[in-house]
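Record pair follows.
FIRST:
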Amino acid sequence: MCDVHTWKCQRVGKWLKRAGFPQYIQPFTQEHRIDGMALLSLTEMDLRSPPLELKVLGDIKRLMLAIRKLQRENQYHLALTQRLENGTRTLRYREFMQGNGSDFAESDGFTHSDDSSSENRVYVPTFKPEIWKTVISFIYVFLVFLATAFVMVIVHDRVPDREKYPPLPDLFLDSVPRIPWAFVMCEITGLVLCAIWCIVLLLHKHRFILMRRMFALTGTVFMLRCLTMLMTSLSVPGDHLECSGKLYGDFWTRLHRAFEIWSGLGMTMTGVHTCGDYMFSGHTVVLTLLNHFITEYTPRNMYTLHISSWVMNLFGIFFILAAHEHYSIDVFIAFYISSRLFLYYHTLANNRVLRHGDKDRTRAWFPLFSFFESEVDGIVPNEYEWPFPIPSIFMENEEHDSEENDM
């Protein structure tokens, strides 16, 4: 994706030449000094009206199509330009929110010039990395995973006797025969989604915000899973599962087993086999959250990636059920809770009215959200960068290569 907002007038001229409009280089770049930001803000009315006043209808339409393509590829910077051009409207919005009891501080993204007139105040979103908060969120999910592993050991000791409590009736499990290799395929699917998400994190400009959100959401869902596993113990979903309770009576034995589960990430591929952790499916949680994070933080026009991510999510869920490792209700609840919590979190994070309309209520019901998102103002744009220093040998041709890829 080309950073059109950084273009100088000369770069705009080169773009016009490659787009097939060399006749407009002089009026655009020399007479009217249109740079990258100005190019992004052009409309068809600007092309038709003075001072540009283009006369050829076909050129107007074709040039506008090319400009709209650039606008689609640079939506964030285009939106930022529009916000800066509408400072008065933003100020009225802020005054409206203050009049309704919302507590907006001057540091919440509102800046103004030396002139104290309200006409000069505009809203500019800020995205601070806040690495220390990301470290805290990692510690949070780390401790939750340890607690989850220990709870899994406890519920294994409480698993109901299969002879006294046979598998519960389940529409899917009763209709579809068990596929022995399906659960391994589910975990392979999860590893593929995890690899894609790691690449997105590596290249995303706001990677620390993304990691913070991932750790916060994952930790919260798995903490809820700990509670549901402790509250209700379901019978094993299939006769193929060899589960016997009262295996880890000693505390240190339980702790050692919990460490084995934690270090093996709870995966069958690493030799971890557990029983009793049915309400609800942890594998479904991981698949669903990975899918939602991938589709949310990659460009909207990457349709193949998004479809593939959803297909892997759904097929992973099918493999869990086909392996008869969970009841259908376990998988359904896991998918619903994970997807809804992801959507609720991002709806609050992306909507200033919801987030600032009642700060006290948000802080009471979502304390982690209020802490982690306090300095994230607005929708996080999908911008990408190479995280490592580029060797100087490649720097000479960087601008030339970027110009060739603009078309």
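SECOND:
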Amino acid sequence: HLHFSLGVEIMRRTTDPVHDDLEKGINSDGDASKKGYKPSMTMISPFFTKLVTQLKCPFSWIIIAIPLYLFATGLWAAMMREPPVTPALFDSCTTAECKLQIPKIIHQTYKTAKLPLEWAATPLKWNQTHPDWSYQFWDDKRNRNFIQKHYPWFLKQFDAYPNGIQRADSVRYFILLKYGGVYADMDITPIRNIEPMLGDAELVMPVTPNIGLTNAFMAAKEGNPYMKLLTESLQSYANRWYHFSRHWQIITSTGPAFVWSVAQKYDGPMLRVPASVWGKCKICDKSCPVIPGGYLRHLHGDSWHSWDSYMFNYVIFCHKYMMFALLISVVVLAVKRQNTLDWIMSHKELLVVGTFLFFFSFFFFYE
């Protein structure tokens, strides 16, 4: 107890300048004989007192709200994060028999039969790992003929899409609805037979480590109601007010965001395969490492990406913390442009807390 009391007294004397003055025989009024002195909150914790005062200004909340949001969401994600499921532990069967329900057909599509060099061996690898499966290649001409013959009601919308990738996206849903089987992008190659991953499910959709589901790999039984819902929803998603850029238009009208949005309205059975099982990495990663015991390998893709795709994926999505910091800086400069330096010097405490939350979120919660 004696050591503790001495420690407290030493800390009080070294941190309380007014106490030092009293010990020297003077106080703030120059009168050492004045009794009953009690240090104010400002003297005990000036940092937090100033911070509270600064937060009374609505503009200050803009500075603190964004880092606080990043900190809170990062902390929540860290608390809720579970160890990834490995391919060996993934259970795709609902019955002991676990009979494959997906037709043994592999579908892939590209503009022409002449594939880029990095994808040229993809069809062969699918045939080698799935010798008793049928491999179907679909080019642009075959895709359009298919829609014209089997789904003529959609041909007008199919031709109206401004981007070829939208036609490639949309036709895959009709193909799986009509024939069933497995669809895989050309940049997805098999490591081994995927039947254990499909189990006895009639619909298999992969989860992306970015956001939601993806349409890069799908499997369904012919006539599956989810594939039917996708085909019936395409026209209503074709022209939306939020299609303000090419990349955003593609992913929300026919691509992954569209698939994920429609999935929210579907209440039927769906086997969702974690990214840690089917082998998808984050879009911010330069390459996808091969997962031990995994089923698929991802080559370099994104053949349809343009400049705005880079802005969305690698600037905004992959560097969101830097974007938030830039946004805060722009707000400060815009609102306080005439006295920016003076404002910064008078709000040091606010900026210190905001910077701490920002960098703590970045270094401890960023994946």
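COMMENT: The chain has a mean pLDDT of 79.
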